[in-house]
Amino acid sequence: MNPSFHLQNSTVLITGASSGLGAEFARQIAAFAKTIIIVARRGERLRLLAEEIRKNYPKISIHENVIDLRVSAQREELVQWIIEQKIPLNCLINDAACGDFGEFATADWSRLHDSLLVNIEALTHLTRLLLPLLRQQAPSAILNVSSLVTRMPLPHGAVYAATKAFVSSFSEGLRIEEASHGVVVAHLLSGQFFGSTEFTKKAVRPGALLPWFIFPDTSYFVSAEKKVVQAALKELSKQNTLSEPHFLKRFLMPYFLRKFSA
Questions:
Q1: Which of 123-137, 212-226, 235-249 has the highest mean pLDDT?
Q2: Domains of the chain in sequence order
Q3: Residue 215 pLDDT exceeds 50
Q4: pTM as predicted
Q5: Distance from C-alpha of 224 to C-alpha of 124, rounded to nearest angstrom
Q6: How far apart, in whole angstroms, are the C-alpha atoms of residue 71 and residue 134?
Q7: 207 near 102, Cβ under 8 Å?
Q8: Cβ-contact 101, 154 below 8 angstroms
Q9: Across the strands, what pairs with 57?
Q10: Which residues of 150-180 are buried (b: 16+ CB within 10 A; e: fewer)?
């Protein structure tokens, strides 16, 4: 039996770390990890997060990498830097995501394309580039942030939901492949965009006819980011491959499936 993955003294790369769940993953993992690599486009956000983590955990090694994950060459440069620095990476958290919520027929292609590039292409490419390193450092782990919308139809969010369905399916297939190589592959069915979040404010277009629980004024119905990350890391530490912390939405999911399928 392969040894189990543990966050203690791990070396972790987190994409989408400038805000939301990505930043929260960095904050919580800092209590266990030896080294963290935080990746996003917004350099100032990364700098402030790194300063916060260094203040709370002076012994941790944290690297800020400002890259645009939509660009293939920049993804390759990131991996080459990790190799050149001889960083013993043994955990990858693919959190970066883009979304566009509104009628598909009136969507701006550039916004949809960004969703496809970041949510599918970048996640898949970066995972492929880093997998040999993760195998070398096994026991290792990959945690892909998916979404609860993979469990239901999502009018006015069809492309986003489809990209997250890809993430879940990809994660399940890769989980089986990597089991014998000591790499745990897990995915989080997150609902982080529900409620008043930065992601929602950027992604939802005026006039989007989304289910009532997605609109920003329903933040009371949302698990806090801290609790979502805590639940995901707890499941990962137990080698579980699916984290679905929003039990209330799971309970209501059959209702929504009936409503949107009618």
A1: 123-137
A2: 11-261 (3.40.50.720)
A3: no
A4: 0.85
A5: 28
A6: 22
A7: yes
A8: no
A9: none
A10: bbbebebbbbbbbbbebbbebbeebbeebee
